[in-house]
Amino acid sequence: MAPPIRYKYKVHMAKTLRTSGDYTIKAGAGTAGTNEVIIDAKTFRVKGDLTVDGDQTVVNTSILSVEDTFIELARNVSLAATTLDAGIYVNRGDLDGAVLFWDESEDKFKAATTTDGAGTSPLTVATLAAFSIGEPSDGSDATTKNYVDTAVSAAGYITSFDVAADSGTVQTVVDADTITIVGGSNITTVASAPDTITINLDQNLDNINSIGNGSTTNGNLDLIANGTGNVVVNNILTFNSNAAAPTATSITKLYSNTVGGGATGVFFVNSAVDSGAEGELISKKKARALAIALGG
Q1: Chain mean pLDDT for the chain
Q2: Three-state DSSP class for 75?
Q3: What are the phi and psi torsion angles at 113 (to 5°)?
Q4: Is residue 263 part of a domain?
Q5: Within-domain flag for 282
Q6: Which of 36, 63, 222, 242 gets the highest tally of CB atoms within 10 A of its CB?
Q7: Do the beta carbons of residue 103 and residue 111 sit within 8 Å?
Q8: Secondary structure class of 200 (helix, strand, coil)
């Protein structure tokens, strides 16, 4: 029978190890190996700065207490790294991770869920998360929904309003309704953000029964052709009422009045003709009679 194995323990009193240079503790192959250095003590205190060079730092504690007033993330980012997101990542097991982070692509903080892991950047947002805050007390505070609802209600707002068409038909518009502006014949409408509606008149307008110049007193209604083009009347030109003789100018003015010697009732004035006196266009029958009378 083999003799029992006896273990010897040596207990040392408190001691200080001082070196004049660097001091290295290396287990096995160091960072290239699999060995560990384990310090089993109630408290492990580092008096100076602590630098951890590795891929991951795992803290298996229930409470993390930090004396620093600020925690710096992404410490080694250069000015050129403009796509790097950073923030706080909450591991939720099988559920998407929850993050409160700075989105570098949009220059804003976001609360969201993500399917990406904690080490991924830029971060892909799955859904934006609700963010609860207190009621604002200062002009630069973020507002809550309750604050906005209360402020809008106190200021008064429209819950519905009526829209009437030319026919007089009234439609009531309420929240979530859409007002559609439809163009008529050869009229197109385009809606674009923000809040802009453009109405375009195409070259040819059909079914136009009346053109007026609104309420402008004694205003002109000008029909102007482009360049050497003409204003063309393809059918009957009708004068609906007689007019008093207008003031003669160097431009011929044509109008209707009581039928006179010319037997047409169509008159004109031009300051270069008969010193601007009113003249009546002569009918074909009247012109033939005058020609016979004058021996023409």
Answers
A1: 87
A2: coil
A3: -110, 160
A4: yes
A5: yes
A6: 242
A7: no
A8: strand
SS3 content of the chain, % helix, strand, coil (to 5): 10, 20, 75
Let me know if residue 157 belongs to a domain: yes
Contact 255, 246 (CB under 8 A): yes
Exposed/middle/buried for residue 275 (C-beta within 10 Å: 0-12, 13-18, 19+) = exposed
CA–CA dist 107, 98 (Å, integer): 19
Give the predicted TM-score (pTM) of the model: 0.49
Rounding to the nearest 10 degrees, give the CA dihedral for residues 198, 201, 203, 204: 150
What does the block give as tokens for 41?
């003590």
Neighbours of 74 (CB within 10 A): 13
CA distance 187 to 201: 5
Q: Which two tokens stand for residue 209?
A: 């029964």
Residues 6+ apart with CB under 8 A from 22: none
Q: Is residue 86 part of a domain?
A: yes
Span 5-29, pLDDT tens digits: 665 666 667 888 888 899 999 999 9
CA pair distance 109, 101, nearest whole angstrom: 6
DSSP state of 123: P
Mean pLDDT over residues 17-45, rounded?
Answer: 90
- The total of structural domains in the chain comes to 2
Backbone phi, psi, residue 103, to 5°: -90, 105
Assess contact for 37 and 24: CB atoms under 8 A: no
Q: Are 129 and 111 in contact (CB under 8 A)?
A: yes
- The domain in which residue 268 lies consists of 253-293
DSSP-assigned letter for residue 292 = H
